[in-house]
């Protein structure tokens, strides 16, 4: 590593590495967009790992600082795996089914970035959490 | 200079910026007791460790008490030295010190001269409220010179300041922590195994009996009472201007005659003068100097009268051991002469002769056991007592010193010149040597024998003397720290001197480690110095090479100055030593 | 650059390492590799999370799940369940002791709820050995800002306005200290970071250096810029090997990145930092003693003034701040003095890190805004007293501080309130005591510490403290008198008044404050020869309870001094004159018939 020559260089370096630590900041988790990928056996079998990695990659590419990507256990929609839930702060969660890696990337672009809910991919919620 | 105005006990006083509360208080005749504090500013030593906490005073607006010795005055300061809070704290500090101090005052070496004792008396301490564990340390009598009894150490650190900052010998430092803290050489080494030069300046400044001398008094009494022994005594030049102080006389009183009379009354068979040997030293040293000067020997030449300084160069500058003169110190020369020439002349078996030196010095005690200074396996000088020890003996013998008549030294070793008397003060040896070297080199009579530029208390002095058209440059250092500076300049090749005089003690022998305690009053030392020069002026003969008894000895016994016999009897060599 | 989808943040502070966090890290790495997830999941060793009571701590991000007391076995299960299947392992989460409720997130835990982490902001958050992570969280931005946009005067003004005070104990305003050093004229000045943390139980400085070393380096450089120094030293005790290692790594990285050394960020500003190791003497935390130690001299204080700001290291103007103080500098400069001064109390701004220890449920490191009450810290963050015992006192400020009783629990903590109630902030040690603690004995403990750590230079501290300790020994041995108590008070006051340095000026505090608040307990020791807490063995008496004694003679047989007498099947009795209080009878009795009081 050659020395950092100016404050601008330092800032650029900061921006480059920022995302790698940002997810750890749990101080205001309520104010972040949360993408949850179902990662139970059925999900993984249907390619949930590829999906989550694609989503993370896309989020990073777009420098979306306010997005947290996490995994969860079985959501109970084995027929529609991989499943992905998107929750904007203070809003009702939207649950998508059959999200492969390609759709995962598109989801980030359309729903997260542009705010367009992808109605076609939504699966009906069949229950409510108490 | 900016002046600062303040109030002390209600008195307004204005003092220069940087003045301590302690000094400012003196201006308004307010005495603040001190213990660890010691100001020898003529020789640039101030012990301001602020460790005893006896001088604490109240300063308005300050949370806690301030040590007067180490607190500088500030504008508008309001100081109170006599409040109950200050007095109580002060007295408690003394009580605490006493609670960890042996109370054997009646039989203590420092009895009546101890500053802690005096302080306790001044503050009216009648009871020690605190009791508990006491410090006990092994007593160190490993050296011939300095006795350490650290049970009596009060951690004033004066010895450390003196040893490390003034003398740059770095023997002492505080070791261990908490209650066990004590001043000690590295690794707790006994003094004999350290680089201590035994100058005794630590003893001179110690307020208690933690540091004293190894006494030879008992052995002197023994020798004096032995009918088979022929006991002769020699006195160094610095004794006669200081001994009177011990008997209530004004500092600077010359008591040569009374001293001789007193020594006779103690029972010495002969009372001689080290000055005789000092004249011999000048002859040998001047000869050596001229030899080096004319035959391309190594210059500068360094005087070698001071055993403390000799040990210093052996430890600190072992690569410079070819520089000092090879002359023995005067009292060792005297011992040698006494046990050869004098024994011969008087027809006494040298085995029976006991030579006692009265010296202002502790290093002389160590010097007499140096192996290379023995003559045929026997000591040249048998016993060394200090000025203080002599005074003790006179008191013990009930001699009323002040009313004694003046008496003269015995012959032949009692004859001396003004040149030899000034050996007792810084600059004196080199001045004496110049008086002789000048005349020998020029074959002219030196009319004005006084070289004032080498006199006084400046740490480093220099003079230039024109001899046969050549500028002879002289350097003088007293105090080993100053000596170190000079030697370093020689080591680096910066020194331009032809001859250098060095004395280990600041001020020279008049302020030696064996002199009556002055506890920081350097006015006393200055008066001793004046007295030395007065004694010189009072002498009829003021040049060593004119001492008739010395010349007679060379003619009858030694032969040529610097000759073979002279070398055998009067010269020595030096040993490399380690720094530790 | 690999983008990981999950970070396992494993605490690598000394406390968690001691309870096995290094093995946990190894296990995680091994298991994750086994599953082929090493490119998706990252294991990061971080600095201290503070919750040492429940270490080793593992936090999973971005899921925000906080596991406590993780062992290698538990790590295996966490990988299998949480990491692979996305199922949080509830068993390993923190359970609220009172409600038994399982808490998933760090923010929900009472231990963290009221914390505000400024100095500890990056501890447990970033990898301290990876400078990229520090840079990612705005590291060295404050230095960059200062060097390019601000004059030294402006920075000092900002620090002054923030109200930041020294966190090492004294509470001297940091900005004023910097200004004093700036105003001292000299060609050479120094910055020193005092990392000689020594109060018993305190470890905030160590945790900061272990968890976020760059924040201290950055602040030192800023300080250097402000006062006109190009050289800094970190004086750290050699007993902090992990902190030293992380500092070394951080310093090397900073040099490599041009954030230390010559011409930093192209601004022409130079700053070097060296480590200096202390040998562990408590007194070397005192700034003049510290300077002596760096210079190679004996670690002992010298008289102030002159202050280090005027004449410090090598007699040059020197600014010394403690680690925690430095750790506050960058956030102040990035977020502004107004932000900082909005936190805390009127005269004490910002937060303070406390090392919570003793008889509380949650032992650990907490950073809270100034002004929180002792009750909040002890009962909410600390989770209350262990074993439902009764709170007796809390000791703050280490050997320089005092003991604060229950009646002051609602005091809002800041520098001045603590001093008012006879204690002090100190470096932030907070040791909680319960009804089983004897206050005379506690005072003795602290005074013993001061006696051992005294440099021995001045009479007041060297001899005075020893004499005080001896009196305390007499009291706990049942030889105390009421005169002793008067003596203690007077001597303590004089030692405070007359000592040379801060150690001596505060060392009687533990004694004086316990005498003030627990006078009756002292009197009980002296007059009744009784230790109410049952701690001072010499004052205890053994008794046989007649209703429980069956007369089995077992006690009489083990008594080494034949102090117990009694016939078979009849109640035995202990002769108090003969009893040497060895406790053998009590250990032998199978009927709980022997009591001690």
From TrEMBL, chain A:
It comes from the Bacteria. InterPro entries: Thioredoxin-like_sf (IPR036249). This is NADP oxidoreductase.
UniProtKB/TrEMBL annotation, chain B:
The keyword Metal-binding applies. Pfam families: Fe_hyd_lg_C, Fe_hyd_SSU, Fer2_4, Fer4, NADH-G_4Fe-4S_3. Residues 2-85 form the 2Fe-2S ferredoxin-type domain. It comes from the Bacteria. GO terms for molecular function: 2 iron, 2 sulfur cluster binding; 4 iron, 4 sulfur cluster binding; ferredoxin hydrogenase activity; iron ion binding. Keywords: 2Fe-2S, 4Fe-4S, Iron, Iron-sulfur, Metal-binding, Oxidoreductase, Repeat, Ubiquinone. This is NADH:ubiquinone oxidoreductase. It comes from Fervidicella metallireducens AeB.
UniProtKB/TrEMBL annotation, chain C:
This is NADH dehydrogenase. Residues 540-569, 570-597 form the 4Fe-4S ferredoxin-type domain. Belongs to the complex I 51 kDa subunit family. Keywords: 4Fe-4S, Iron, Iron-sulfur, Metal-binding. GO terms for molecular function: 4 iron, 4 sulfur cluster binding; metal ion binding. The lineage of its organism: Bacteria, Bacillati, Bacillota, Clostridia, Eubacteriales. It comes from the Bacteria. It comes from Fervidicella metallireducens AeB. The keyword Metal-binding applies. It holds the Pfam family Fer4_10. PANTHER family: NADH-QUINONE OXIDOREDUCTASE SUBUNIT F (PTHR43578).
